[in-house]
Every structure is written in C-alpha cells, then in structure tokens.
Amino acid sequence: MSTARTENPVILGLPNQNGQLRGTINNGNSQPAPTTNALNVILLVNNNSGLHRPGDDWKKNLKLPPKDMRMKTSDVTATKGNEFEDYCLKRELLMGIFEMGWEKPSPIQEESIPIALSGRDILARAKNGTGKSGAYLIPLLERIDLKKDCIQALVIVPTRELALQVSQICIQVSKHMGGVKVMATTGGTNLRDDIMRLDETVHVVIATPGRILDLIKKGVAKVGQVQMIVLDEADKLLSQDFVVMMEEILGFLPKQRQILLYSATFPLSVQKFMNSHLQKPYEINLMEELTLKGVTQYYAYVTERQKVHCLNTLFSRLQINQSIIFCNSSQRVELLAKKISQLGYSCFYIHAKMRQEHRNRVFHDFRNGLCRNLVCTDLFTRGIDIQAVNVVINFDFPKLGETYLHRIGRSGRFGHLGLAINLITYDDRFNLKGIEEQLGTEIKPIPGIIDKSLYVAEYHSESGEEVKP
C-alpha cells in the first residue's frame, strides 16, 4: 500500500507560487516517480534462463508490484469472473497489464474491452475510480498497428494533470509492445517542443482540447488516419467550456472512426452529442447509485471563522494517509495552504492560475508521497487517481451535486475505503440537502470518534473482515 514519505519537520513560507508548503508530518515510505521514457522497451525480456520464447511460462518472468491486500468494495469486485487473457490480447500487452498490478478486469473493463475491440462506439457511465482508464487504453493499445507511422488514436481529457496521468499509464501498459509511441500535449507547455515531437512517429496522442485543435489546424498533428477517439470525463468535455472545440476536432477526423465516451455523469449535452456523432453506440451504465460504496460521508456544522480550527482538530484526530482539501477559489486555496503550514502540517497547493511547470511538480510530488495534504480547487476533481488518498475534506462546500460527486471520488479509489468530510455553514444548508436528494445519498453529522475501519486500510483484510490493531 502506498503511503506518504517521511521528511524532516520544517516550516517554510509561500515559495514563489509553486504550490509546495512544508510543515511537520508523520509519514511512511514513498514510491519511485513514474518513468516517462519507457516508450522503446523491447519485447524480449532477459531472465535467468535467457530470452522469452513462445513456449516459456512468461508470467513467471514478470516484475509484479506487491499484491494489494486492502479490502475492495463491490464497485470493482462485482465482476463476471473474466480474466484479461479471455480477450485474446497480445502477450506483450498482457505483460504490461499485469506489471501494472491489474490482476483481473473491473466491471467497467469487463463491459468495455470486448465491445471496444469489436470497433463499436461506446457510451459508458461508471463511477470515479473504478478502472475507466484501463477500460479504454487496453483495447486502444491492442488495435495499434506498429507498421503504420501515424497517429491512430486520440484521447481527449479536460485537464493537463489528467493528460499526464493517462499518458504515464499508457506508456507503462505498452512498455513491452516493441515501440508504441505515446505523446501527451497540453496547454501551458512549449508549442515548439510538441511540433518537433510530431515530426517523429507518434501512434497515440493524449491531449487537452485546445492544444490538440491548435496542432491540427497548424497541420502538425495529422489525424487523417485516426481510428479511435476517446473522450474521458465526457460530461466536462461536452460542456459549454469545450463543446465547440470538440465539434471542430471531430470535423478533422475520418468519417469511419470509433468514438468512446466515458464519464460518471451524463447531462443532456452528452445525449445531444451522442445522437449527432455516434453510430448505434453500445451503452454501459454501472451507476445504479451515484456515490462510491467505500466512501463514508459526514458533515460538520460550523461558522466560517471556525473552519480552520475544525480542520486542525480533524488533522489531530484522523488517521490520514494523504488528504485532498477543496476550496471554491484560487485565492482561498493559497490562504488555507498558508494557514495549514503555520499550524505545523506539511501542505502543497494547486490551482489553475499557477504556472504549468509548478502544477506539474506539485502533482508529481504529491502522488509520489512527498507530502500528506493537498489544498486545491476543482481543477483536481477530474479523474485524478492517487491511491494513497483516504480522506477528502470540503473546506468550502460545492453548490452542484456533480462537483461534489467528483470531489469525494478522489478517495476510495478502485473500490478502496475513503472518508469525505464537509464543513457546512448556515449558507450551505440548502445545498447540502439538495445534493443529498440529487445523489440519493446520506451525509451524516460527524460523530465524536470516527471508526478507523471506515477509512483506514490497515484495519481490514482482503476478505473485508476487520483487523484488530
């Protein structure tokens, strides 16, 4: 299980808008930073007996991560019992899948992979943190033809951090496939670097809408042979912020292409897009209930002036592995991060007004366990997967049920346990009631003592039985 890393207790001021504040924390071990240069790993893998051959027991030679013994909820365990080998995938792809620690397909992967491999359009609705990235990346990589030196697949995502995350997963899963070229391109980075990169072979592009549209219009990103386009977090991509760009991007693609839409929520904008562009899509709905089963939700009724004191109390009483704390504005993010560091806790912060290199550094360092607490805006609600996060705190309560759903989905990733705590003021009371009704969920008053078995993995075995400390 990944945990945050030990560091010497220090307190620093607000350093050059880079989002990293240090205080005193008690942490565990860190994991090495994910590599981003694993594109050209060759298929043949050395081992004690020589090279892999078709008859070898290839599974014995895989470098598997430690088995995750944490309890998982039915959001990811209620499967049909399929195995990844059942889908007739290339062995080299299977090697990457297993080395990611993906043992068996989750429900969304079981539903998606065979349909996507058949070439059919998909409209998939599944909860945050249940394996959507694997559901589209596995069939996408299986269908890449390495003999063709062209862009064959596009993955469009709404945020730069999500683009980096998805590209790293894609690189790692494909590392044994003999040269699949993956490229991430987002706003806020050097356009010249992207142009030079596209002058070489690229098979898969993972991008934010504005940047990839710019590259297409400049004639640099040649998308005439793209066979698959994925819209991850499709509800956001088809909102007013991006829908015009998405329509333009599709206009440059071949008429015969496969479209995969994935999201936790599907408003009317998605339905309209589907009717215009998808051909008899296969619809998947794994959202009988909206909130994750493993996330316990509480509220604390406070005044605005009591919020920081309440947060300090939570830090002292909860067993936090890593936490994400949401505010409703960039200014409040920075002010709260400074307060947290003054209280003596290690704290990073991230918001959309920061320089991109600083955002990248904060995202990279937090997911690798260099800090226990991250304060952020809703920039960080979309698809960001950090397994070590077990507590989400809404310092400012959101107005929309959709925002709330995506925020609390940062904990309880892939069926694990998590805790969501909401600081509610008098002005938030109607929003609280409305979100409960909209999502069909119950947000309970916070008890004096929160049972650790609700959100701390060490208190559970894989079978789900509570482990006595």
UniProtKB/TrEMBL annotation:
Its EC number is 3.6.4.13. Its main location: cytoplasm. Keywords: ATP-binding, Cytoplasm, Helicase, Hydrolase, Nucleotide-binding, RNA-binding. Residues 294-454 form the Helicase C-terminal domain. One of its GO terms (cellular component) is P-body. It is found in: Cytoplasm, P-body. It catalyses: ATP + H2O = ADP + phosphate + H(+). It is an enzyme of class 3 (hydrolase). Residues 113-284 form the Helicase ATP-binding domain. Transmembrane segments: none annotated. Residues 82-110 form the DEAD-box RNA helicase Q domain. PROSITE patterns: DEAD_ATP_HELICASE, HELICASE_ATP_BIND_1, HELICASE_CTER, Q_MOTIF. One of its GO terms (molecular function) is hydrolase activity. A motif (Q motif) lies at residues 82-110. InterPro entries: DEAD/DEAH_box_helicase_dom, Helicase_ATP-bd, Helicase_C-like, P-loop_NTPase, RNA-helicase_DEAD-box_CS, RNA_helicase_DEAD_Q_motif. Pfam families: DEAD, Helicase_C. Gene3D superfamilies: P-loop containing nucleotide triphosphate hydrolases. Belongs to the DEAD box helicase family. DDX6/DHH1 subfamily. This is RNA helicase. The gene is DDX6.
